[in-house]
Structures are given as C-alpha cells and as structure tokens.
Please model this.
Amino acid sequence: MKRLAIIALMLNVGVAATYAQQHGAKTALSGTAAASTIDLGTGTPTTEYNLEGNSSLGSFTFRTVSSSAAPSQAPSSCSGGNKLYIPIAAGMGVLRSSDGSLLRLRLTGGSDCVDFNAGHALCIRMYEVVGGTGRFQNAAEDGGKVTLTMTVAPVVPGELVFFAVTGEMTGIVSE
Model:
C-alpha cells in the first residue's frame, strides 16, 4: 500500500511537470509613457509605461512603472555625443494576457541612455517573475526573467511630457 502511494505521488508530480512549460518569449510591443504619481520611494520621479504586444503566449498588455537614480558614469555604449546615462533604481510591472492571467514582475536593473541629438532614449528594464494568476500561477517557481528594451521618443519633438514607445520583450516565462 505504501509503495502504491509513492508511485501515485510520483505520477502526479510527473504530470504536473508536463503542464508547467517554460516559454522563450521574444515579442515586439508598442505604447506610451508619461510621468506617474506613483511613489516608488527613491526620491526621483516615476515613469509609467502602457504597452501592448502579441507573442507565442498570445496578445497581452504590459503596465510597468520605474524610477531612476542620479545620472552616473556612462558605459561605452552610452558615451560620446550629447548623451545622458541614467541608471534605474526601482520598479515593477504586470503583464496581462488576453485570457486575464496576470504575470507579476519586479525590476532588478536597467538604464536609460538619452541621446539628445537623435531625440530619443534607449531604455532597458530587467525583471524577475515574482508571481502570477491563472495560467501563470506557478511562474515564480521557475525563476523566470524578462528584459524589456525600448526606444522612447517624445510624441511632440521637444516636449518631454508624453512619449511614444516601441521595443521588444525577451525572456523565459513558465505557464
């Protein structure tokens, strides 16, 4: 009887493992960004991004907020010309799939490289998966990571109030 219980438990674990699938995600997305009233406790302004895309996981919306640290020494990829390098201090995001499932993300790093001559910024946000609902309810158990790479430009040139965003999201997500 004990052996039968162990076999049944092993079978259940094996079946559950086949349902928890990791997906490599790489998808184009677009949307807008603007200043936010959300306070992330960094003492710096917060920016909110509202984005949409379509991936192997289906269509989704992604809302994320982040705040910067003080400008610092730029890496070689953001030096020369009229550029400003700004590390990102804090942030979080929620990806909502078309079936209503949510994927919760915590920002682990990132930066903005503002190119004043080109009139846009290259913004990178790196996240870890911290939880989910629906088909993403077990996503945090596999240590998923997602990187968001965006080009952000003012909707009206020279007016730094409302921004158009294009980019891509890459990473590994379990469902």
In short: The beta strands are 22-36, 46-55, 58-68, 83-97, 102-115, 120-132, 145-154, 162-174.
